[in-house]
Every structure is written in structure tokens, then in C-alpha cells.
Design brief:
mainly alpha, two-stranded antiparallel sheet, about 5% strand, elongated
Length: about 100
């Protein structure tokens, strides 16, 4: 019988699922916020399609960057996620790890 109540999935698998879910939410929220901001600017300034189109472009750029970061999760030399090697050496993608200073 499997002792792990979550099944045979490793901790890394669940972290990747969590990261993908978080980035998916980020994509949706960034698109809704930027398009909503474009609609607001269109109505406030009377510049009908310009605000929405700018919002769509900005939202797609933000979503694209989020997807780029998702693809970099598996590469320890790139991206913003810190990954530990087997021998304990740390590879950092730009941010300090939570364990630094302990």
C-alpha cells in the first residue's frame, strides 16, 4: 500500500502544478485588469478603441511574460525561481532563497 496519501506524485510535481495554477490565474487577472483599465480610459477620455487595444496589448505582454517564467521553472540556470542541486549547491535565478541567512 502506498504510504503517501497524495499518491505516487513527488513533491516537485505538486510544486509544478501549483506554479502552473498560479501563473494561469496571473494570466487571467492581468488580462482582465488591463482590458478593464482600457475600457475605463476609453469611457473617461473618450478615446474609444485606443484604450481597449492598449489594454489587450499590455495584457498579452504580461501574460506572455508569465508563461515565459513558467517555462523557465524547469531550467535551474534561468528564471526567477531558486533551485537546489543534488550536492547542496544553490543556483539562483535572481531572487534570494528563503533559506538564506539561516
Amino acid at each position: 500500500m502506498d504510504k503517501n496519501p497524495l499518491g505516487s506524485h513527488s513533491r516537485r510535481d505538486w510544486r509544478m502544478v501549483g506554479a502552473a495554477s498560479g501563473i494561469g490565474c496571473t494570466v487571467v487577472i492581468s488580462l482582465l485588469a488591463t482590458i478593464g483599465g482600457g475600457v475605463f480610459l476609453d469611457r473617461w477620455l473618450g478615446i474609444a478603441p485606443v484604450g481597449v487595444l492598449s489594454g489587450v496589448a499590455l495584457g498579452l505582454a504580461a501574460a506572455g511574460y508569465s508563461l515565459y517564467e513558467l517555462t523557465m521553472l524547469g531550467d535551474p540556470d534561468r528564471g526567477i525561481v531558486t533551485v537546489r542541486k543534488q550536492d547542496g549547491d544553490e543556483l539562483s535565478g535572481g531572487r534570494p532563497s528563503r533559506d538564506e541567512g539561516r
